[in-house]
Automatic annotation (TrEMBL):
Family matches, as PANTHER family: GDSL LIPASE/ACYLHYDROLASE FAMILY PROTEIN (AFU_ORTHOLOGUE AFUA_4G14700), GDSL LIPASE_ACYLHYDROLASE FAMILY PROTEIN (AFU_ORTHOLOGUE AFUA_4G14700)
Molecular function (Gene Ontology), one example: hydrolase activity, acting on ester bonds
Protein name: Carbohydrate esterase family 16 protein
Record-linked Gene3D superfamilies: SGNH hydrolase
Organism: Echria macrotheca
Signal peptide boundaries: 1-22
Lineage: superkingdom: Eukaryota
Annotated Pfam families: Lipase_GDSL
Keywords: Hydrolase, Signal
Length: 297
């Protein structure tokens, strides 16, 4: 069975920062791929991640779509119990494969192209860019939002089955290079975002049917991937609880209601009508850290 981890039910599993009984000193590595929910503006040609700035460039919290910190930044700081360096190839607007679903703008690298960038800077050869190993490295991906919405705005349904296959072809590339630890961030319930709340009931249902089907197919395909590849640890991190917790009690997260937006990322749940602010992003990070508590975090 695939292990599902909720970003709120895992709270009890997490050690508060600084309370780990045996803090690990060995450097760990994160390879991250995704879209605007994940991007920090990392340029592979710029400064590499380092203890002083674990996301490399720009300086923490990076250039994000949250008004400040997003989940990769929180993950390597607030929820980190060791020295963990994050190579974050995510770019706003990315889809799984531009040939299946075109991104909302030109020149936006898809998951396929982000893996190409990962290969291009020498990370598969390890010592050329970072001394990572199968044991000290974790790779994760967060895709599907743009794919589903781009097709929805065009009055179409996203090619979910093809997207899932391309998704795991990228994981296979990582596996062939030596990666053994993987996680998938599910697409959150987009009907809880202010943008999709404004759609008709029929429209919201169409979107959520695609979201639920995509997430289900990802989980099933992960089990196949694990059976076909020896030594894989694969985890599905369920993001829905982060949205649900914040929307159910926005005042607990510093927001007056569940729908307001503010570019400061702090005084509302939402940075804009589609992108969560810092509170929800922190819950995302909490979910990933909880899924790997005791091993990577």
């Amino acid at each position: 069975m695939v292990r599902w981890y909720s970003s709120t039910t895992l709270l009890a599993l997490l050690c508060p920062l600084g309370t780990a009984t045996a803090q690990q000193t060995t450097t760990k590595y994160l390879f991250i791929f995704g879209d605007s929910y994940t991007a920090t503006g990392f340029n592979p040609s710029g400064a590499k991640p380092s203890p002083a700035n674990p996301i490399g460039n720009p300086a923490l919290p990076g250039s994000t779509f949250s008004g400040g910190w997003d989940w990769p930044g929180y993950l390597v700081t607030a929820f980190n119990t060791s020295q963990t360096l994050a190579y974050n190839f995510a770019v706003g607007g990315a889809t799984v494969d531009s040939n299946l679903v075109a991104p909302p703008g030109s020149g936006i690298p898809s998951f396929v192209e982000q893996i190409g960038r990962w290969q291009g800077v020498g990370l598969p050869s390890r010592p050329a860019f970072a001394p990572w190993t199968a044991e000290n490295t974790l790779a994760g991906a967060f895709f599907g939002i743009n794919d589903i919405l781009q097709k929805y705005w065009q009055g179409q349904d996203a090619p979910l089955g093809q997207m899932v296959e391309r998704y795991f072809q990228q994981f296979q590339t990582l596996y062939s290079a030596g990666v053994r630890n993987f996680f998938i961030m599910t697409v959150p319930p987009l009907d809880k975002t202010p943008q999709i709340m404004g759609q008709s009931q029929q429209g919201r249902s169409r979107i959520m049917n695609s979201v639920n089907s995509f997430n289900s197919q990802l989980a099933s395909r992960l089990e196949t991937f694990k059976r076909q590849n020896a030594g894989v640890t694969g985890v599905v991190v369920q993001t829905a609880a982060a949205f649900e917790a914040a929307v159910a009690n926005p005042r607990a997260y510093g927001a007056p209601d569940a729908t307001c937006t503010n570019y400061n990322g702090k005084s509302c749940l939402w940075w804009d009508a589609l992108h969560p602010g810092e509170s929800i992003q922190r819950l995302f990070a909490q979910g990933v850290a909880g899924a790997f508590s005791g091993s990577f975090f």
